[in-house]
């Protein structure tokens, strides 16, 4: 991933076709040792291709990947999701109340004395 990021940084900097030396220079500037095999692989895969088109194709592919809250899961869960929402909200309220109580207790400790000392 770091090699692709360095390649993209070079392209973003105006170099339409970064070389191995360009990628190595970017990575070494932030203290990363370069492996020639990985640099060569990135250059061979990306050379001659339009980065904008590759990124757009990647976005299209990512759009088809389920990511936890997909419509399919929501429709199959149906009423179960609707009934669990209030329970989740109630659990969240309890956690917030507990945090509030803990912070109030801590504020008493900060003053150096308690209410009944």
In short:
The protein is mainly alpha-helical and 117 residues long. Helix content is 73%, strand content 0%. It has six helices and no strands.
Describe the SSE topology.
Blueprint: H1 2-12, H2 20-29, H3 36-46, H4 51-63, H5 71-77, H6 79-111
Question: Please, how many helices?
Answer: 6
Rg value: 27 Å
> What ranges have pLDDT less than 50 throughout 5 or more consecutive residues?
none
Question: How many strands appear in the DSSP assignment?
Answer: 0
What's the SSE pattern? HHHHHH
Strand content: under 5%
Report the end-to-end length measured between terminal Cα atoms: 60 Å
Shape: elongated
Explain what you see.
This protein has 117 residues and is mainly alpha-helical. It is built from six helices and no strands. It has helices spanning 2-12, 20-29, 36-46, 51-63, 71-77, 79-111. The longest helix has 33 residues, at 79-111. The termini are far apart.
């Amino acid at each position: 991933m770091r090699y692709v990021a360095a390649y993209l940084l070079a392209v973003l900097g105006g170099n339409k076709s970064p070389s191995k030396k360009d990628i190595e220079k970017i990575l070494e500037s932030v203290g990363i040792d370069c492996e020639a095999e990985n640099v060569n692989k990135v250059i061979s895969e990306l050379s001659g291709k339009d980065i904008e088109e590759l990124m757009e194709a990647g976005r299209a592919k990512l759009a088809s990947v389920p990511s936890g809250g997909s419509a399919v899961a929501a429709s199959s869960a149906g009423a179960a999701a609707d009934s669990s929402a209030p329970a989740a909200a109630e659990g969240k309220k309890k956690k917030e109340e507990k945090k509030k109580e803990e912070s109030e207790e801590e504020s008493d400790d900060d003053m150096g004395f308690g209410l009944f000392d």
